[in-house]
Amino acid sequence: MSDRISLATWMANIQIKLLVWRAGRLVGSDAAGNRYFEEKKARPGMKARRWVLYKGEPEATKVPPEWHGWMHYNMAAPLPADSAFHKNWQLPHQPNPTGTTQAYRPPGHLFAGGKRDKATGDYEAWTPN
């Protein structure tokens, strides 16, 4: 079975490389190393397709806001790094950590020790009649 998976992955990579070589035009890349492409020639009456080749594991939340807007045709070109929309107080883009070791774990979560503070006196558990 592992031979099948590796062969399928290999074939998918070949197909992607052929698509990019034949039909794609590199538009740019982001700080994380993701590369963004657009169709060289749009189909009649349609917008040119846009896609991203992720660096590392594919995860949609790795796409920063300026590229997200471009991918969804909200802007003709991605925002440049010196754009007035980028503020010095903004934190760098982070992918969604849900399901990873960096995910938030509230007090009492089994992976965060499994103990939480005692409930205060204003809490009364619901019990059915």
Automatic annotation (TrEMBL):
Entry annotated with the keyword Transmembrane helix: no
InterPro entries, A to Z: NDUFA12
Biological processes annotated in GO: response to oxidative stress
Region spans: Disordered: 87-129
Keyword Zinc: no
Cellular component GO terms held in the UniProt record: respiratory chain complex I
Family matches, as Pfam families: NDUFA12
Comp. bias regions, Polar residues: 91-103
Keyword vocabulary terms for this entry: Ubiquinone
PANTHER family attached to this UniProt entry: NADH DEHYDROGENASE [UBIQUINONE] 1 ALPHA SUBCOMPLEX SUBUNIT 12, NADH-UBIQUINONE OXIDOREDUCTASE SUBUNIT B17.2
NCBIfam families reported for this sequence: PRK08183.1
Stated name of the protein: NADH:ubiquinone oxidoreductase subunit NDUFA12
Organism: Niveispirillum cyanobacteriorum
